[in-house]
Design brief:
It contains nine helices and four strands; from the N terminus they run ααααβαβαββααα. It is α+β, with helices and mostly antiparallel strands. It has one domain: Glutaredoxin.
């Protein structure tokens, strides 16, 4: 897969957003722990957060299947692989997520595989609804949209950049679908079809541009 650059001005922010506290970073869990936590909750017919309705459980079960599929099929493009491999500055990739979030399920497996390429990158995941003060520092058009990736200098704890909640093209589609006021099933099907067709291409192109910008 060869990356073609896309406009990411809507999604990617590299403005100074201060520092991340040590206690927040310490509370983050690994991708494996996050997945195990979701499985444990589902065994009790629960999901993350306070809403354990049938719909939320169904979304979560579907997201587990999405993550399993992407874990097996994801391919990291050579340009991004090279950029990640040569990264020397230790970074913490802090991701705000929830188990029921479809966009998180579509993007987290790729972020995990990217982080695995270089030991200088440590991926940590925190739950949105348990960290609203953090979430409110990284809103998207005033909303608590997830997933949100926050790239942190591991030494200084300075925020270097952030990305999310979805690639720019997916965000444009999302905005268009919302404007049409489609039933949720149609809305969700269209958005997840975009992800299935895109196969992580735009996410990787945007992460490559982000890393090059903060290099």
């Amino acid at each position: 897969m060869r990356l073609h650059f896309v406009s990411i001005s809507i999604i990617m922010e590299t403005i100074n957003k201060g520092h991340i506290q040590d206690d927040i970073l310490a509370s983050g869990v690994t991708y494996a722990s996050y997945r195990n936590h979701i499985d444990d909750l589902l065994s009790e017919n629960k999901t993350t957060g306070d809403d354990h309705s049938e719909d939320m459980i169904a979304y979560t079960r579907m997201n587990v299947q999405r993550m399993k599929r992407i874990d097996k099929t994801a391919v990291i493009a050579s340009e991004l692989l090279a950029q990640l491999s040569h990264l020397k500055q230790p970074q913490t990739w802090l991701v705000i997520s929830e188990a029921w979030c479809g966009d998180a399920a579509q993007n987290l497996p790729y972020l995990h595989q990217m982080a695995e390429i270089n030991q200088a990158i440590q991926l940590k995941i925190v739950l949105r609804d348990e960290n609203l003060e953090l979430m409110d520092r990284f809103l998207t058009h005033g909303g608590r949209s997830i997933p949100k990736l926050i790239v942190v200098d591991s030494s200084s704890k300075e925020v270097l950049a952030d990305w999310g909640p979805r690639p720019a093209a997916a965000q444009t589609l999302y905005n268009d679908l919302r404007a049409q006021q489609l039933p949720y099933a149609e809305f969700s099907t269209a958005l997840h079809k975009w992800y299935a067709d895109n196969k992580g291409h735009d996410l990787q192109a945007e992460l490559l541009a982000l890393l090059q910008k903060i290099r």
